[in-house]
Design a protein that fits this description.
The protein is an alpha/beta fold. It contains 10 helices and 6 strands.
Length: about 250
């Protein structure tokens, strides 16, 4: 067992069950017996939590999402509206909620609940996910597919947020600044060494692309869509004011 895996053993695992719904659901054979599918869910959950000695906290999407009200440029996750859901979508969700104890996150996403709990538990938890967005949350992370544990420090977490603020997130239909990809974003942000300097770089790029009339509202919109919550009632601090990094 690697040192990093050993390091997370006594932490509280925070698992995003939406990932399991889709991974297992789409992997199921056509008309595969539901018993087999739910057994696969059981195994995936067990494998994801295998490195941990403590009881896990499981989260799954509930009703509503505050980001739907923020999105103006493009509908949030609007590129997925017509995408088919996996076979046995409802049955897998019900199993995770009723048998595994997954908690629906009404109004927010499982990502947000992971971020909130990671900050509440102050170094005593580990985010269990394969979602690249979670790299903006400092602390321990465990990729349950690669079976890799890694630590994200505060500076790296902040920089990842500003990287996404430039690139956007096509997976979630978040535009960012068009034509700025990861390499360009990294090059731009290398001109700064602090959140304040990274924010100034982002402001400059938004102003360049969107113009004087729109850049501030676009920056506020994209930041609100991308920001993973640290407190349930505190969305991205960048709303009509400069971003405050906690």
């Amino acid at each position: 067992m690697s040192n990093s895996i050993t390091a997370i053993n006594k932490l509280v695992p925070l698992l995003d069950c939406d990932l399991i719904v889709y991974r297992v659901g789409f992997a199921a054979e056509k008309d595969e017996p539901i018993e087999n599918v739910l057994h696969s869910v059981k195994l995936v959950v067990a494998n994801a939590l295998a490195p941990f000695a403590n009881k896990a906290e499981l989260y799954i999407s509930g009703n509503g999402n505050f980001r739907n009200d923020i999105a103006v440029t493009k509908p949030y996750k609007g590129n997925r509206v017509d995408a088919p859901k996996p076979q046995y979508y409802n049955e897998i969700r019900e199993y995770l909620i009723n048998v595994k104890g997954a908690i629906p996150t009404d109004g927010i996403e499982p990502d947000d609940m992971q971020g909130i709990r990671q900050y509440e538990l102050k170094g005593k938890s580990c985010i269990v996910s394969i979602d690249k967005d979670m790299k903006m949350i400092k602390g321990w992370h465990y990729n349950f597919v690669k079976q890799e544990a890694f630590f994200v420090d505060g500076a790296s977490a902040d920089r990842w947020f500003f990287t996404q603020l430039l690139t956007g997130d096509p997976t979630d239909n978040i535009q960012g600044v068009p034509k700025i990809g990861p390499k360009t974003a990294d090059k731009l942000l290398s001109g700064g060494t602090s959140p304040e300097e990274w924010l100034a770089i982002c402001e400059q790029e938004y102003q360049r692309y969107y113009g004087e009339d729109e850049w501030q509202s676009k920056l506020s919109e994209m930041a609100g869509l991308l920001w993973i919550l640290r407190k349930r009632d505190t969305p991205c601090p960048w709303v009509r004011t400069r971003l405050t990094i906690s």
